[in-house]
Amino acid sequence: MKTASRFEPARRTVEEIAPAKVxxxxxxxxxxxxxxxxxxxxxxxxxxxxKLTFQVENSILPEIKLSICGKYPVPExxxxxxxxxxxxxxxxxxxxxxxxxxxxIPTEAGLGGGSADAAATLRALNRIAGDPISSDELCDLAATxxxxxxxxxxGGTAICRGIGEIMETIDRPARxxxxxVMGKDRVSTSGAYRALDEYRAxxxxxxxxxxxxxxxxxxxxxxxPLANDFEAAVFPDRPAIAERKARLLSLGATDALMTxxxxxxxGIFPDAASAVRAVSAFSDADAFVVETVGRYYS
Length: 298
Description:
- By secondary structure, this protein is α+β, with helices and mostly antiparallel strands.
- It folds into 2 domains: 12-170, 2-Layer Sandwich (Ribosomal Protein S5, domain 2); 177-291, GHMP kinase, C-terminal domain (Alpha-Beta Plaits), CATH 3.30.70.
- The protein has 9 helices and 11 strands.
- It has helices at residues 81-93, 113-128, 135-143, 149-154, 189-202, 212-219, 230-234, 239-250, 272-279, and strands at 12-31, 37-56, 65-70, 98-103, 157-161, 166-170, 177-182, 227-228, 255-258, 265-269, 286-291.
- Strands 1, 2, 3, 4, 5, 6 and 8 form a 7-stranded mixed β-sheet that branches.
- Strand 5 (157-161) and strand 6 (166-170) form a beta hairpin.
- The longest helix is centred in the middle third of the chain and has 16 residues, at 113-128.
- The chain is globular, with a radius of gyration of 19 Å.
- The two termini are 16 Å apart.
């Protein structure tokens, strides 16, 4: 690790965006002894994003001050991943700042909003501090905060393995347009994993592992069916989510899927105009048109 130099920035504002993610393929393995599940997933970041504003002052604050605005309220207490990631970073450099989080990514949607916020916090604080921590070490720090945080740290398109920390980046992701739809349903990540474990205990369905060829073909924009193991466990108790997926297909999506552990669903459309038309049909839900975002940190 680089030696952290003493820095005394003038009072200023530093902003960082935190893009959401979608899972084009999500294969979940059996529960491990450590309580985690092995994953094989193809993820990419999209243009729906939270925004974080860091107020940098010369004085050292006694604690991290977090304020929330935006459409989707989240806790301002230490359970928030922004505070957790900031504390983990400050343990390395000994500074504290105030943070304002504009929350635009729906919560409990499978869009990685909390992970994106944590990753954005690490990127911003490292930049403010003069990059004392290398990108590899920052990735290791991200992995202690959550399975999706290492991917969200870098963005773009990547095949992720392990619990999400082993990444194979796709350098030139295909440009894709999505209609993302989120109703009133909420699905907690822990609840989705419990439901999947229970479903597999009572059903004969095996774990479907996509081939390397399928992952690479889909990442490059080829026609490989999307797949998410969580759908079989979540849809029976959340039929409205399955209905929104079917509706996206009826509106012209070339394929559609629940993202992550849910509850958001997305459809892939050939162009922005057709995605806009699909979104306009969902007056009873939050719906967004987004496109892929390339890798933004190296």
